[in-house]
Write a structure and sequence with these properties.
Blueprint lengths: L1 E10 L2 E7 L4 E5 L6 H13 L18 E9 L3 E9 L2 E6 L2 E2 L3 H4 L5 E4 L11 H13 L3 H26 L5 H41 L4 E6 L7 H18 L10 E6 L2 E2 H4 L2 H23 L4 E4 L2 H4 L2 H10 L6 E5 L7 H5 L2 E6 L2 E4 L1
Parallel strand pairs: 3-13, 3-14, 8-12, 12-13
Antiparallel strand pairs: 1-2, 1-4, 4-5, 5-6, 6-7, 9-10, 10-11, 14-15
Helix pairs in contact: 4-5, 4-6, 5-6, 5-8
Length: 362
């Protein structure tokens, strides 16, 4: 999978951009604050229709403008044109000029694996941020995943609302709560199964990836879920036992909305016991494993983005990464220091210099 061209209109600090990329290595360098990351953010948004830096779509629109358009020509077995158009009214996506009504039908087409400095914080932050990581990665592989997740979240809100209704009105029907619970468990089990499958696939590769770059340590992902090793009947019984507590508290006390993943190095939670370096290494091994999963499931290599390279990795690790990456993987690297990149890499790369004067090659 390669992105051949990128066109931007009123995206972040860019009024108009027209770029052609190389099929292997593309290096984007310049000082902080000139718009390097904006370019890879645009590639990411072309794939997933959203940014990795903000949850507010309209923040991508250039100040003073009413909309932005991200357009790219992407090559797999065929070459297709993709567009993401964001305005203050909403978002539209197109493939070959045809509007795609369901985002889930769009985002499985362009696969992106991103490594950026803030992702190390995922290990120490809330379970919600780690669930978000899972949701983003699985949604690129499974068209139904976003639909299942949206349905689950809608039901969760309905169920929580009805639990509060039951607390206020003790005569309200508990039968309706049973119906909501049964539907919630049905969707939850499907999501659980897809998450478990993804994590099992990650664990097939992650220790070897960790060894390839960092030489020692046994790394694996531990999946914690209320649904683990439980049948639908088991779960329904547990929910029913919790009804009274849930009614008092006004919320659903178990479900896949409490899921979490832990990065375990030599059987210890790396967020609690690992050094900063080990935590960075763990995230990188996770991302490299994800590349393998996408190739295994889709039969094509994803696009790989390494944003702000040297803040996350040292020269030795970068050299190891480049050596183990399949040469068919189109890679984008942003950096402030072009002099720290190996000259042999630069020889075969497209090098783009971003400055306040614009974007130029070399």
């Amino acid at each position: 999978m390669k992105i051949n061209t990128l066109k931007l209109v009123n995206f972040r600090n860019y009024e108009k951009v027209n770029l052609n990329f190389k099929s292997n290595l593309n290096i984007i360098y310049g000082n902080n604050g000139v718009g390097k990351t904006n370019l890879v953010e645009a590639i990411y948004a072309l794939s997933l229709t959203k940014s990795f830096r903000t949850n507010v779509d309209k923040n991508l629109i250039k100040m003073g403008e009413v909309s932005t358009k991200i357009e790219g020509e992407v090559e797999t077995d065929t070459v297709n044109n993709y567009q993401v158009i964001i305005s203050k009214e909403g978002k539209k996506v197109k493939i070959n000029q045809n509007i795609i009504s369901k985002i889930s039908e769009y985002i499985t087409n362009i696969n992106i694996v991103l490594l950026e400095p803030e992702e190390q914080m995922i290990l120490k932050s809330s379970p919600q941020s780690r669930r978000r990581l899972l949701n983003i990665e699985i949604s690129q592989l499974k068209k139904d995943y976003i639909i299942l997740l949206n349905n689950y979240n809608k039901l969760l809100k309905q169920r929580n609302f009805y639990l509060r209704e039951l607390y206020i009105n003790g005569n309200a029907s508990q039968e309706y709560l049973n119906i909501l619970t049964e539907k919630l468990v049905t969707y939850g089990l499907k999501i659980y199964e897809l998450r478990e499958e993804f994590i099992n696939n990650i664990n097939e590769f992650i220790t070897k990836k960790y060894h390839d770059i960092f030489e020692d340590g046994e790394l694996f992902i531990k999946y914690n879920s209320d649904y683990k090793n439980k049948s639908k009947d088991d779960l329904l019984n547990v929910y029913k036992k919790n009804y009274n507590r849930e009614i008092v508290m006004g919320k659903t006390l178990l479900g896949i909305h409490h899921d979490d993943i832990l990065f375990m190095l030599d059987n210890k939670n790396i967020a609690e016991w690992g050094s900063n370096g080990q935590q960075k290494n763990a995230i990188l091994a996770f991302k490299l494993s994800e590349i393998e999963i996408i190739y295994k499931e889709k039969g094509t290599q994803p696009i790989f983005i390494l944003d702000d390279l040297f803040s996350a990795l040292d020269n030795y690790k970068i050299k190891n990464i480049v050596e183990i990456l399949n040469k068919d993987i189109q890679t984008f690297i942003t950096t402030t220091d072009i002099n720290r990149i190996d000259e042999k890499l630069l020889e075969n790369a497209l090098v783009l210099n971003v400055s306040t004067d614009g974007i130029k090659e070399g």
